[in-house]
Amino acid sequence: MKVRAATREDPRALAVCDFSFLVTREAAPPFEGDWLARAHPVEPYAKSYGFDPADLEASIEATDKALFVVIGDETPVGYIALSIGWNNFAVIDDLAIDVEWRGTGAAQRLMQHAADWAREKGLPGLRLETQTNNVAACRFYLRQGFALGGFDRHLYEGLSPGTRETALFFYRFL
To answer: DSSP states of the chain as a string?
Structure first.
């Protein structure tokens, strides 16, 4: 398995991947101490953020963005999309690994490339957003050296009125 900068063909190749995940637990406030240990079980349901190859194409040649893919069995099986945020942090706009390749170290390799890219750009760190229903991702980010910097209970209300999802903002200083 290797990571490389994406080519123009990669977004279409990634379209065959299954980036969905099964929600089985949800985190809830207070987001202090060992807050993930208090995540409560929920009736399992599938979650997918959708995938549009065109959304990634702008990241390939931009100087303030980057797109890296992880290759498994000679084809892309995951990616990380990065940009430079208004506060001069490298923003992880998206990180996705095909369901069959999770647990192989693919996401960790992509995360290392993201940190290297941020260092090369002279940025102080990485930031990202995830949700309280993506407990596995939260655990992964904490293992990668991220810290929870804040949350927003209302960010997703415009997309799904009455949602239980809370936005979580993670930071990793380099």
So the answer is: -EEEE--TTHHHHHTTS---EEEEEE--S--SSSGGGGPEEEEEEEE-----HHHHHHHHH-TTEEEEEEEETTEEEEEEEEEE-TTSPEEEEEEEE-GGGTTTTHHHHHHHHHHHHHHHTT-SEEEEEEETT-HHHHHHHHHTT-EEEEEETTTTTTTSTT----EEEEEEE-
CATH code, domain carrying 71: 3.40.630.30
Q: How many domains would you assign to the chain?
A: 1
Sign, CA dihedral 1-85-22-31, equals positive
Which range of residues forms the domain containing residue 34? 2-173
Partners of 55 in the β-ladder = none
- The answer on pLDDT for 47 being more than 90 is yes
74-116 per-position pLDDT tens digit: 999 999 999 999 999 999 999 999 999 999 999 999 999 999 9
> Which token pair is 111?
């995360």
Q: Look at the pTM and tell me if it is higher than 0.90.
A: yes
